[in-house]
Design a protein that fits this description.
This is Delta(1)-pyrroline-2-carboxylate reductase family protein. The protein is built from 11 helices and 12 strands. With 304 residues, it is an alpha/beta fold.
């Protein structure tokens, strides 16, 4: 059987954000889900190959992704690859999804699910730091799933920031570009950091009702948030990680010297073991093949 890889647009059409967030929640309650540790294989020139398998009782996937930091600023994306989906009962390859599209949408949907469960205030304004692919996907996810109507955008690239602001306006949102992300923290209860993560981009204390989704740093060597900020949020509110894998991957928290193993994960939140706290919330997301499995499950149903 020949399975033609879906285009980015075809993959997008099968993964609407509210439905994907619901599927992520359902996956966390599914006892048949198995997710081995992902393989990160270093490549010459600072690139990496990620191999990420997962399965439930009916579907098995492997996500194959290259991460090439040297592509930043060029026409080539930094993340490329595919998600291959198999039917377990027959061994048949069912779908080949566009990998970067799955990564962008499931990452934003994970942040959306966390915000739905944990954000003290969900109406915004939303501050997005980083106007790349993840900035765009989080903008769309929070607008579709939380009803956010106002967004503030900060980026090292003025052109990228203006382009994302124009996209937001095209969705009917109020959008502005801001030069000082630290100062914007005082005005925005929702925050997403989605940067190349070579150094801390935020280190000021956030609002008491802040929800921060930090998604740019997904290896121990990467960092977006300053150590003082991480400790301040832990003291006044709560820090939650996406999965237990963050114990080895959450660069922001590890470099801050925090005991990541002691932090609650999103599964604890979904299962009712981590109620919405008082004070600010930091949701640290590093990625997990289980999120790709949830996207595959939803895409298979949408295709079938």
């Amino acid at each position: 059987m020949t399975t033609i890889p879906l285009t980015a647009a075809e993959t997008t059409s099968r993964l609407p954000y509210p439905a994907l967030a619901e599927e992520l929640s359902a996956l966390l309650a599914d006892p048949q889900v198995v997710v081995p540790a992902r393989l990160e294989h270093p490549l010459p020139g600072g690139a990496s190959l990620f191999v990420m398998p997962a399965n439930d009782g009916a579907v098995a996937i492997t996500k194959l992704i290259t991460f090439t930091p040297a592509n930043a600023g060029s026409r080539r994306p930094t993340i490329q690859g595919d998600v291959v989906v198999f039917d377990i009962a027959t061994g048949t390859r069912q779908l080949v999804l566009d990998g970067p599209t799955v990564t962008a949408r499931r990452t934003a949907a994970v942040s959306l699910l966390a915000a739905q469960r944990l954000a003290p205030r969900r109406d915004g304004p939303l501050l997005i730091v980083g106007a790349g692919v993840q900035g765009l996907s989080h903008l769309e996810a929070f607008a579709a799933g939380l009803g956010v109507r106002e967004v503030w955008i900060n980026s090292r690239s003025a052109a990228s920031a203006e382009a994302l602001a124009d996209h937001a306006r095209g969705l009917g949102l109020d959008a502005r570009v801001v030069d000082d992300a630290q100062a914007a923290l005082a005005h925005c209860p929702l925050v997403v950091t989605a940067t190349p993560a070579s150094a801390a981009v935020l280190d000021a204390p956030p609002r008491e009702d802040a929800f921060i989704a930090a998604v740019g740093a997904f290896t121990p060597r990467m960092v977006e948030l300053g150590a003082a900020m991480c400790h301040d949020i832990a003291r006044r509110g709560r820090v939650v990680v996406d999965t237990r894998d963050a114990e080895h991957e959450a660069g922001d928290l590890l470099q801050a010297g925090m005991d990541v193993a002691a932090l609650p994960a999103l599964a604890d939140v979904v299962r009712g073991n981590c109620p919405r706290p008082a004070g600010p919330v930091l949701f640290k997301s590093c990625g997990w093949a289980g999120w790709d499995l949830a996207a595959a499950r939803l895409a298979v149903r949408a295709t079938g």
